[in-house]
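Lab notebook, bench 4. We co-purified these components, and the gel suggests they stay together. Before we commit to crystallization screens, I want a quick structural picture of the whole thing.
Request: model the full complex, all chains together.
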Amino acid sequence: MSQHPPDSLIKRFAEGDLPESVAVDLAMHIDKCSVCATRAAMLEPMALVFASDEDPQLPEDLLAEVLLAVSELQVQPALPPTLPGAMPVGPRAELLAGASLVSAAATLFFLLGDPSHFAVDLAVNAHAAATAASIGASSLEGVHSAWPAMVAALAFAGCLVLGYALQPQAYARRKRG
Amino acid sequence: MLSAREGDPTARAWIVERYTPAVYRFCRRYLRNEEDARDVTQETLIKVMRNLHRFDENRRFSTWVFSIARNTAIDEQRRRKRLAPELKKEPAWEGPSPMDETSQSRRADRLHVALADLSPKYREVLVLYHFEHLKYQEIADALDIPIGTVMNRIFRARKSLRNVYGADEYHLA
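Here is the predicted assembly.
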């Protein structure tokens, strides 16, 4: 709506006699056009009634009470800026740490234990879930979650090395058994 | 805003001084009870300050403040109903009884009674539009409803008020 609508249309609008789609268009125009907003206010049937109502007086002591209450609040820190290497806090960090441990344990179990289908599935799935959680959190949080992802990766790499180192002994034990 | 977020006491005090009157006016008209309006005003400003770090800067600050005030007022109404479930009807307007019999004070008094008879969802849009002078889109944002719903509620509320007043009484001269 680029032009000012006629008074007749604004009057129908103010009285609520327009179809909703037209009323919404006109309302959005009035929101942006001070000229039409003034005209709508003048044509509003209840204008005189609303204008006759004086604003309730703010109780004298209320502002002081609110100021005092607000001054006693502890300031909430704003969302932290992206600090390289900063550890996330709260449940998400604990969850990721737990996922890293599960990943490490599953990998160790796979490499040292009986490589049956169940063990393979368990290890692969657990590690995939833990890695996905770490990567997902890292992408959401930026560098804040880099540490858990790195912990998971290091734990996985460590277990891999340890597993390969110990695997011949484990097979030898099983053969002897 | 940035200073207030970082805890600057002067900036926080400025926000309180700037918005307390408007929040109180809204609560007084919406709840129609001075004590409740005082409590809700204080609680609203405390919530605003506690949640400054969550404020989305794409929104208008006043709209955000009114949305908190409105939600806090609704919570207060629910609490009041829980405490006194036998009181189904909300309290009538407790404004000062006009001692003088001027036509303006009589008209205002009738307006308060008529507003008190409206359901809260109609009353809140009328108060925000006609007394706090929010725009239609701002009301829609504050109440989290479509603009078409805002329009419908305002029109219905006005019609309801018009039924209270005689047709010859409310038109501008």
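Chain B touches chain A through 56 residues (CB under 8 Å). Worth comparing against the SEC data before the next meeting. DSSP finds nine helices and no strands in chain B.
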